[in-house]
Amino acid sequence: MVHGGLAQTILGALEEAKIDIENLTAQDLEPLDNMHGGGAGATREMMAALSPAPDQHLLDIGSGIGGPARMLASEKGVKITGIDLTPEFCDVAVMLTEKTGLSGLLDFKQGSALELPFDDESFDGAYTHNVTMNIPDKATFYAEAYRVVKPGGLFVSAGLAEGPNGPPFFPVPWAKVPQDSYLVTPDETCRLIEAAGFEIVDMIDKTEAMLEFYDQKRKQIAAEGPPVLSVHIILGDDGKLRLKNSARSVEEGRTTPVEILCRRH
User: What is the DSSP letter of 172?
Assistant: First the structure.
């Protein structure tokens, strides 16, 4: 059992939501463990783009507390290794994975995306969701992803790019201050991915989908009240403000959500 503050906060929220912790499922956790705009729906769209087979082994770069990995494992039977820089996230990912009975398919490691602790061509495919905004050295980030994916393997990079209408409002989920945010334009993102060696199969501007997601969330809150389970639990005391600022930044064209599907040559 993990006894850290985040673990206890999550377990407390699950109890408040009347979720049976002893019979926990990946679906129970979806409202809080998909730590990106679009939530579980965006994860499923990414999953569809990857089209994983049950015999594949994928890498989740910046796996957080393991939400997307658990979804893929539970719904597709895929083996996944997650890596994240934050030790507490890794500990919580392991704890929640054990409680959902998915430990046989999932493995989480603490480490840097800029120096992945894996051999060349170790994985059938890889993905990253809302991670690159924190990475100043994106060239190395994408080069490392390319190195560990097998030839012909798919890689999905999803996240927020620089928008045309000025910087985002801070704090946001990925950065409390501007000095910790490293956004580049969608075109520059594509250039960096191609420079690493990947072939870009498709790039999707997810702005409209994100705006619809925000609208649905607001209507849900108006009808049902604030949810007990939400990503703000992971983000801390200012989590609601950070989520609000992220939504406003997309709505005002200060950030552009993109999903880029690539293939290694």
Answer: B
CA distances in angstroms from 111 to 108, 193, 231, listed in the order given: 10, 21, 23
The C-alpha atoms of residue 73 and residue 66 are separated, in whole angstroms, by 11
Residue 87 belongs to domain spanning? 5-112+119-264
Distance of alpha carbon 239 from alpha carbon 202, whole angstroms: 32
pTM (2 d.p.): 0.95
User: What is the CB-side half-sphere exposure of residue 235 using CA atoms within 13 A?
Assistant: 23
For β-strands 255-264 and 149-162, DSSP reports them as antiparallel
C-alpha span between 102 and 111 (Å, rounded): 21
Helix (H) or strand (E) holding 203: strand 198-205
- Percentage of the residues of the chain whose pLDDT score is greater than 90: 95
Domain total in the chain: 1
73 contacts 100 by C-beta, under 8 angstroms? no
Taking only the tens place, the pLDDT of each residue in 36-83 is: 889 999 999 999 999 999 999 999 999 999 999 999 999 999 999 999
CATH classification of the domain holding 163: 3.40.50.150
